[in-house]
Design a protein that fits this description.
Layout (H helix, E strand, L loop, with lengths): L7 E8 L2 H11 L3 E8 L2 E10 L8 E6 L12 E9 L4 H10 L4 E6 L2 E7 L5 E6 L21 E8 L3 H11 L3 E6 L2 E5 L7 E5 L12 E9 L2 H13 L8 E2 L4 E6 L5 E6 L21 H4 L2 H7 L7
Parallel strand pairs: 1-4, 5-8, 9-12, 13-16
Antiparallel strand pairs: 1-13, 2-3, 3-4, 5-9, 6-7, 7-8, 10-11, 11-12, 14-15, 15-16
């Protein structure tokens, strides 16, 4: 039986100073800081999660902030552009907001949609697109109210070293549907209301270099742990080298690098981000997995102080 992912679960990127990261994604874009935790493989570094009010799959962008780390280069083998979706009629608000914060932007059209394109402080490429699908984000932050707030991901643009092979993985493994081709891009869709649109650049270019200002991986949704194990076997049976299941506390994860060199993850929707905090207090304090709780005092001395401001 062919499997189909509902869409994007989260996207994870590498950035520089953690406070700068919070100031932009929470302070300017109005996303909720859903979780303060640490990189499970490098606990001296934060892992910060931003999303909608409830931290739902399809809304979450996560960051490994390494202050003073080297700058990366966006290119093949990476997610090149992260697209956010806002309510219909909200783009003029965002044009004014970006101008207010002196953030350069440009307008473009792709597949009949108007998009606003800009970069975050570390050079990550961001787009905003307005669509009717997807419920409003009930998180308010200053002038960013639910009527204009980012709902979650509109999708992502993939830069592949071997676009034809990546296209096969998107359709034959992940179960996305090929929708249309326009210029150098082919659009694929999934069933979710948000995080459901992936554009693949069909022409290979320069290979990306991992570092600050680049996306580390894109994660796709699995319904639950049972579905997740089915995905692991399914991906393996399609000739991909997939990892063992890793417990990320808020979801389980498996990883594989598809032939175009983009790192794919498949993550479970549950248990979510409220299982170690209440929905009201999510993101307000440093949360550590059990294996690092004994080192809390040392980690809190090491980590750079941060706050939403």
């Amino acid at each position: 039986m062919k499997k189909h992912t509902a869409g994007i679960h989260h996207i994870t990127a590498i950035v520089g100073h953690p406070q700068e990261n919070i100031d932009f994604y929470a302070g300017v874009l109005g996303l909720r800081l859903v979780k303060q935790t640490v990189n499970f493989d490098d606990p001296g570094t934060y892992h910060l999660y931003f999303g909608d009010k409830g931290g739902k799959p399809g809304t979450i962008i996560t960051f490994f902030p390494w202050a003073n780390a080297y700058q990366g280069r966006i290119g093949d083998g990476q997610v090149g552009v992260t697209t956010y979706v806002v309510p219909e009629g909200a783009l003029p608000f965002w044009v004014n907001r970006l101008a207010k914060y002196s953030i350069p932007f440009q307008k473009a059209e792709r597949f009949g949609e108007q998009v606003i394109q800009f970069d975050d402080p570390n050079g990550l490429h961001i787009e905003l697109v307005a669509r009717a699908k997807g419920g409003h984000n009930e998180w308010s932050f200053g002038e960013v109210t639910p009527e204009v707030a980012i709902k979650g991901f509109g999708g992502a643009t993939l830069f592949s070293s071997h676009p034809e092979e990546t296209a096969k993985v998107l359709t034959e493994v992940m179960g996305l549907e090929k929708l249309a081709t326009e210029g150098d891009y082919t659009r694929f869709t999934s069933s979710a209301e948000i995080g459901n649109t992936v554009d693949l650049k069909t022409v290979a270019g320069q290979r990306g270099q991992m570092g600050v200002g680049t996306v580390h991986h894109i994660a796709w949704r699995a319904q639950d742990n049972t579905d997740h194990l089915e995905w692991q076997e399914y991906v393996m049976n399609h000739g991909q080298h997939v990892t063992e299941v890793k417990d990320r506390n808020y979801f389980n994860a498996i990883y594989f690098r598809e032939p175009g060199e983009i790192l794919f993850e498949i993550a479970t929707d549950p248990p979510g981000f409220a299982h170690d905090e209440t929905p009201e207090t999510m993101g307000s304090q440093l949360m550590l997995p059990p294996q690092y709780e004994q080192h809390r005092e040392q980690l809190e001395r090491t980590l750079i102080p941060i706050k939403v401001r």
